[in-house]
UniProtKB/TrEMBL annotation:
<keyword id="KW-0520">NAD</keyword>
<dbReference type="GO" id="GO:0005886">
    <property type="term" value="C:plasma membrane"/>
</dbReference>
<dbReference type="InterPro" id="IPR036291">
    <property type="entry name" value="NAD(P)-bd_dom_sf"/>
</dbReference>
<feature type="domain" description="Alanine dehydrogenase/pyridine nucleotide transhydrogenase NAD(H)-binding">
    <location>
        <begin position="149"/>
        <end position="297"/>
    </location>
</feature>
<comment type="similarity">
    <text>Belongs to the AlaDH/PNT family.</text>
</comment>
<dbReference type="Pfam" id="PF01262">
    <property type="entry name" value="AlaDh_PNT_C"/>
</dbReference>
<dbReference type="GO" id="GO:0000286">
    <property type="term" value="F:alanine dehydrogenase activity"/>
</dbReference>
<keyword id="KW-0560">Oxidoreductase</keyword>
<dbReference type="GO" id="GO:0000166">
    <property type="term" value="F:nucleotide binding"/>
</dbReference>
<feature type="binding site">
    <location>
        <begin position="239"/>
        <end position="240"/>
    </location>
    <ligand>
        <name>NAD(+)</name>
    </ligand>
</feature>
<feature type="domain" description="Alanine dehydrogenase/pyridine nucleotide transhydrogenase N-terminal">
    <location>
        <begin position="4"/>
        <end position="137"/>
    </location>
</feature>
<feature type="binding site">
    <location>
        <begin position="267"/>
        <end position="270"/>
    </location>
    <ligand>
        <name>NAD(+)</name>
    </ligand>
</feature>
<dbReference type="InterPro" id="IPR008142">
    <property type="entry name" value="AlaDH/PNT_CS1"/>
</dbReference>
<protein>
    <recommendedName>
        <fullName>Alanine dehydrogenase</fullName>
        <ecNumber>1.4.1.1</ecNumber>
    </recommendedName>
</protein>
<feature type="binding site">
    <location>
        <position position="134"/>
    </location>
    <ligand>
        <name>NAD(+)</name>
    </ligand>
</feature>
<dbReference type="InterPro" id="IPR007886">
    <property type="entry name" value="AlaDH/PNT_N"/>
</dbReference>
<feature type="binding site">
    <location>
        <position position="203"/>
    </location>
    <ligand>
        <name>NAD(+)</name>
    </ligand>
</feature>
Length: 370
């Protein structure tokens, strides 16, 4: 198969979808890999490394899309890429369709095969291609939140870990999944007082067992959220419903009950966000303030640490990319149920129910397309 790796063009997105190590694994199986010039530079991988791995370098994004049967990316295609995508071409990337209708409509129009990293789902409901970036984003949420709590950045001027004689900052984490767990570990490690909320009692029991003493677990409901947010210095939104829009757990009216300078980090923003007032921002301008509350809503948080993120992502996606290249997407998805769940849009039809429901579109069962 001919595999194309374009350079990401989303604002301040420095990741690349394939490392040179990944290129070796594909080329040694007889596949052709074409990488856009400088695509890996932001992650620390120069063109020469890809050429040494057996890949070919193409000068432009147009050339990569024109050549490839399968496009492997990090982030969803943005508007300048829409016209480059052709009928029957396989796109393997993060899409987060349910949060952005124009992208969904563009991919329906293209009649491409859109296989989304974020909805590849194992029998235990874990999301193997989302986990590594969720781990990065969860840890970063505390790193960024701590920075924006500083007074010059608009925050309350709170040091999360405190110092002897001064109590530490308080962190509220909404969601006890991968993002929430990693955020809690980081916040606890800094010495903050941490409260993590979830609607699964089994998950809360597990977290209670594994977390240090400065992490408390609380059942998530509106009453408890309103009670704890009033004392929080940093609130992390870490709620995900695979393939669908995240629910709004923090609403506009709640902001007035928070302390001025509170920082909100909505890690779910690329899936619609679980904080009503959050809209996507970029690393170039990551925050805005509403009602004296700082909102950090960067939709590609791991893009700020591209070396770590790119290696972690390739570790997870490469086995699936190899299956798609070796067998073709139809056979690979027929043989691998988790991979089949990654199919969202195929030949102009929406085959993932969460996406169809988000926009009131017709839904076609995925098996009908195989």
């Amino acid at each position: 198969m001919i595999i194309g790796v374009p350079k990401e063009i989303k604002n301040n997105e420095n990741r690349v979808a394939l490392t040179p190590a990944g290129a070796i694994e594909l080329t040694k199986r007889g596949h052709e890999v074409y990488v856009q010039a400088t695509a890996g530079l932001g992650s620390g991988f120069p063109d020469a490394d890809y050429e040494a791995a057996g890949a070919h370098i193409l000068p432009t994004i147009e050339a990569v899309y024109a050549k490839a049967e399968m496009i492997v990316k990090v982030k969803e295609p943005i508007e300048p890429e829409y016209e480059l995508i052709r009928e029957g071409q396989l796109l393997f990337t993060y899409f987060h369709f349910a949060s952005y209708e124009p992208l969904t409509n563009a991919m329906i129009k293209s009649k491409a095969v859109c296989l989304a990293y974020e909805t590849v789902e194992m029998p235990d409901r874990s999301l193997p291609l989302l986990i590594p970036m969720s781990e990065v984003a969860g840890r970063m949420s505390i790193q960024e939140g701590a920075k924006f709590l500083e007074k010059p950045m608009g925050g309350r001027g709170v040091l999360l870990g405190g110092v002897p004689g001064v109590e530490p900052g308080r962190v509220l984490i909404l969601g006890g999944g991968v993002v929430g767990t990693q955020a809690a570990k980081m916040a606890a490690g800094l010495g903050a007082q941490v409260t993590i909320m979830d609607i699964s009692l089994n998950r809360l029991r597990h977290l209670s067992d594994i977390m240090p003493a400065n992490v408390n677990t609380v059942y998530s409901n509106e009453f408890n959220i309103r009670r704890h947010m009033k004392e929080a210095d940093l609130i992390v939104g870490a709620v995900l419903i695979p393939g669908a829009k995240a629910p709004h757990l923090i609403t506009r009216d709640m902001l007035k009950e928070m302390k001025p300078g509170t920082v909100l980090v909505d890690v779910a923003v690329d899936q619609g966000g679980c904080i009503e007032t959050c809209t996507p921002t970029t690393h170039e301008a990551p925050t805005f303030i509403i009602d004296d509350v700082v909102h950090y809503c960067v939709a590609n948080m791991p893009g700020a640490v591209p070396y770590t993120s790119t290696i972690a992502l390739t570790n997870a996606t490469l086995p699936y990319a190899i299956q798609l290249a070796d067998k073709g997407w139809k056979q690979a998805c027929a043989d691998n149920e988790p991979l089949k769940l990654g199919l969202n849009v195929v030949d102009g039809k929406v085959v993932y129910k969460g996406v169809a429901d988000a926009f009131g579109l017709d839904y076609t069962p995925v098996d009908a397309m195989l």
